[in-house]
Structures are given as structure tokens and as C-alpha cells.
Amino acid sequence: PTGPRGASTFLIPAAALATAVKADQGSEVRFFPTGRAGPRKLKLVTICGGMKIETVHSTANWEDFPDRPLIEGHEVEIPAATFDALRAVSPCASRDERRHVLNGVLFTPEQGEGAKGMLVATDGKHLAGVPAVVPERRFVLPNPAVKILAHPEFSTTAATLILPEDTTRNLVAVRSGAHHLLSRTLEGSYLAYKQVFPERFCASIIIAEERNAGLIKWLRTLRANSDSVYLNVERPAELTLSQSGTDGHARPEPRRD
Length: 257
What we know:
Blueprint: E1 2-3, E2 6-7, H1 14-21, E3 28-34, E4 41-48, E5 51-58, E6 73-78, H2 80-89, E7 104-108, E8 118-122, E9 127-131, E10 139-142, H3 143-149, H4 152-155, E11 159-164, E12 171-176, E13 179-184, H5 209-220, E14 228-235, E15 238-244, E16 255-256
Antiparallel strand pairs: 1-2, 3-4, 4-5, 6-11, 7-8, 7-10, 8-9, 11-12, 12-13, 14-15, 15-16
């Protein structure tokens, strides 16, 4: 912003940023640095429906902010479909700080002709995996970075992903237009997810899009702690899902899709 003294560089405090993003749609938000050189204040002005709300926040010296590391490496174009897949699997990523390497989404290339790769997330109880276009190097993107990539500025168009040539640098960069994300990757050994997802499937089943809403609604009615769902293909184009309880007995009226 430009004030009485001309252009000004400053750091937006986290509290001020949190207040700004809570403004209603259509609101006008302005930042004004105040005070003399050194520790300055930041005035946040929000105008909503003609009502003006002002708050003042302390700032930090912008010169203390670290420079953005430069990454030189192989650039890979990531299609918007990969970001759709990222949003689909991310709810299964762990939030338990004791399971550090699971606090993110695994990007892993697959072997074989025509293989694209996989995005995998798990908390040790739930596991999700979706085929996607990923770089040729395996890494785990932490949850905060995954959340940022869900923003439409990244997720609605193709983006460029860069991994450093130096494999000891645990960094990844994503560029989409004027927007840049730089994140550290998580270190550690990820779970052997292929014990759940075999490399080769003997058959695949696609549930018609018009049946998805009803199927998801039915699955959400199940008691998470006591029910299981068994899938059985009895004949072509018919999938039977049976609900069973802790006694191991199938319950009546299985759902067919």
C-alpha cells in the first residue's frame, strides 16, 4: 500500500489476516501501516454494508522475514484433475502430530507403461488413493500446503510443480499464474499402502454418476464403529453392498447399484 510517505513494505500479522478473511463477501478490506520506522502498527479497515470497522495490530520488521529459497530442478505440468484428486483424498490424512509422516498426502509415481501415479492419504484407520499425474519422484506434501492448493487460484487450472535437483533438499514448489507455493516435504517412511491397493486389479467397477448421491447418503447412515460393508459382484452390471454388524451376520435388504 501507499501511505503519506509513499510505498510501504510490512508483514501482515496473523491476527489481522484472520480478521480480514472473515469479512463477508462484498466487503472492502484495507490495510494501513501507521507509526514511524521501527516497530509499526497496522490498521485494518473493513467496510461492510456501509459500516466501518477498524482494528489495530502490531507488526514485525519485514527485514527479518527470510528470503524465499530458490529451487532449480525439473518442472512438471500438473493438470487441474490432480488437484481434484488431492481434495478427494486429503480428508483421510492424519492430524495426529505423533504420526508426522502421515500428516500429509503422498505423491508417488507408479511403475509400468502408461502408469500415471497415485495420491494417497491415511490416518492409520482410513485410507484413500486416487490415480493422478504426479512427478517422477516420491514425496509427502504436508496438510497446510494441501489446504492451500485446494484454493481455486491453484486448483482450477494446470500448475507447474518443481522439485529441486538436490534430492537432499526436502522442498517442493508449485506455481500457478502469479501465485506461488513453497513448502517443505515430510520426511520418514510412509505406510506400505499397496498392501491395501494391489498394483494390478483383476477387475474394476465404476458406479454410475447418477447413483453416487444415493450411495453416499446410504453409507453415511452406517454406524462408524460397528458396521462393515461388503461388496459383491454377482453378475455383470450389478454390485451388491451388504451391511454387517459386530456379530458378523449380514443384515437384510442389501443395496444394489
